[in-house]
């Protein structure tokens, strides 16, 4: 058995099996190709989900930074003279590091393709000192502001954004 060459000769195949092996090879190639395409599409989908999660994580990080910056600004400035109580409501602002503390400047800012803005709103309280859902100018609370921080960016799905709403008070009073 060793030393002899095995040769494939189609003469020894039955007449109904001749030429059928090429069809079998094409079918096997088609099955392997479709499995490869399925695996490849899974990796592409996984990559897109991963990118989206990474972008969302970066946006949340920018929101957290802005929240801390606004709190720092509140703590280092007089509420009514040069602080939050003196800012115009319903206008876009953004935090900026100024020497050793944060400052608040008008307009939005762009950081690595993300647009960040901070909007301050007036707050009103009812007779029980609870914050009212809709603002009532007759019950305006001068020592509380609603802050909405929004970070938006463009990805494969178009414009996407994350936001956070919170309240800050003049705790020094």
TrEMBL record:
<keyword id="KW-0812">Transmembrane</keyword>
<keyword id="KW-1133">Transmembrane helix</keyword>
<protein>
    <recommendedName>
        <fullName>Prepilin-type N-terminal cleavage/methylation domain-containing protein</fullName>
    </recommendedName>
</protein>
<keyword id="KW-0472">Membrane</keyword>
<dbReference type="Pfam" id="PF07963">
    <property type="entry name" value="N_methyl"/>
</dbReference>
<feature type="transmembrane region" description="Helical">
    <location>
        <begin position="20"/>
        <end position="45"/>
    </location>
</feature>
<dbReference type="InterPro" id="IPR012902">
    <property type="entry name" value="N_methyl_site"/>
</dbReference>
